[in-house]
From TrEMBL:
Keyword Signal on entry: yes
Organism: Acer saccharum (Sugar maple)
Transmembrane spans: 242-262, 274-292
Record domain Apple: where: 129-219
GO terms for biological process, alphabetical: recognition of pollen
Pfam name, any one: PAN_2
Protein name: Apple domain-containing protein
Keywords: Disulfide bond, Membrane, Signal, Transmembrane, Transmembrane helix
Length: 316
């Protein structure tokens, strides 16, 4: 919907069952929506479930609403069955690029994970969000899966019906302008490929998570988000396994195993090189004294045999 020269409301793209961000299709008892997608055309067909019922779409200029009206034989009047937009988050691009509109939070605009506000103003979200870490624009980039989002504006997008999700990921990664991808059709486990190019805008948090959206991230941000996600959702056993691996690696670095194996002379590197090594070792040591490194410390202190073996190995 347009209001003058400005976009006012956008219903999300279809996913084979309903529209992203539209009302729950299970509540729609009067209309059946079908996606027609072939080599010649792409469109949606509306079919009345109850053919004895009369309905129509009306653009209500006074209320700035698109209304679905049904005819009541009892009252001999048209009644509003549903309408859009329904809430403040339906306002087009309210939270700017990479902003996520969440009706249940204050402020309702939040940045997607991996992004931060461009503006420091509490109420100014017109500029949207920016990345925490810049993209590499190479195969070093990766993707983070987001669930339960109204898919972004598809003005700058492309679709391929024959590709699967993995092929879609590879294709998107090869194009430095591709910022996100998703299945085109979610029926039957998902099929097809939809890719978005340029900044993503008009995103809203939904109450359901029927469709996943994969957003491009830099390699460094990808690793950080994975650790955060791991800490939030993984089991304690998995946490311990990861911490042990990182903790042992940290010990190997700090105890000089790498220098012994590689016969590396730290005296041969320049001042900046020494500084870089010092920073690396400091980060490893600092990790071991964070909550995530607690299990690694416990594992290390409780394994005298392994410690002895590593000490002997490091001394050569």
């Amino acid at each position: 919907m347009w209001k003058g020269s400005n976009k006012f409301f956008r219903r999300g793209p279809g996913n084979g069952i309903t529209y992203s961000g539209a009302l729950d299709s299970s509540n729609n008892l009067i209309l059946e929506v079908n996606l027609i997608n072939n080599e010649d055309e792409l469109y949606y067909a509306f079919k009345m479930i109850d053919k004895s019922m009369f309905s129509m779409f009306v653009l209500n200029k006074t209320k700035s609403l698109l209304e679905l009206l049904t005819w009541s034989q009892t009252t001999q009047n048209w009644n509003v069955y549903s309408y859009v937009p329904r809430d403040q988050c339906d306002s087009y691009g309210l939270c700017g690029v990479y902003g996520n509109c969440i009706t249940t939070q204050l402020p309702i605009c939040q940045c997607l994970e991996g992004f931060k506000p461009k503006s420091t103003g509490y109420k100014d979200w017109s500029q949207g969000c920016m990345r925490n870490k810049a993209l590499n624009y190479s195969k070093l980039d990766g993707f983070i899966k987001f669930k339960g989002l109204k898919l972004p504006d598809a003005t700058n997008s492309s679709v391929n019906k024959s590709m699967n999700l993995e092929q879609c990921r590879v294709k998107c990664l090869e194009n430095t302008s591709c910022m996100a991808y998703s299945n085109l059709d979610i029926r039957g486990g998902g099929s097809g490929c939809a890719m978005w190019f340029g900044d993503l805008i008009d995103i809203k948090q939904l109450s359901n998570d029927v469709q996943d959206l994969f957003i491009r991230m830099s390699a460094s941000e990808l690793g950080f988000v994975r650790v955060v996600s791991f800490e939030k959702s993984a089991s304690k056993r998995s946490k311990k396994q990861l911490s042990v691996k990182i903790g042992v690696l940290g010990f190997l670095i700090c105890s000089g195993v790498l220098s012994s194996v590689l016969d590396f002379d730290f005296g041969s590197i320049d001042g900046f090189g020494k500084f870089s090594v010092a920073v690396l070792m400091s980060c490893v040591v600092a990790f071991l004294y964070t909550p995530a490194g607690k299990n690694a410390r416990s594992f290390w202190l409780g394994s005298d045999q392994l410690r002895s073996n590593l000490e002997i190995f490091s001394r050569g």
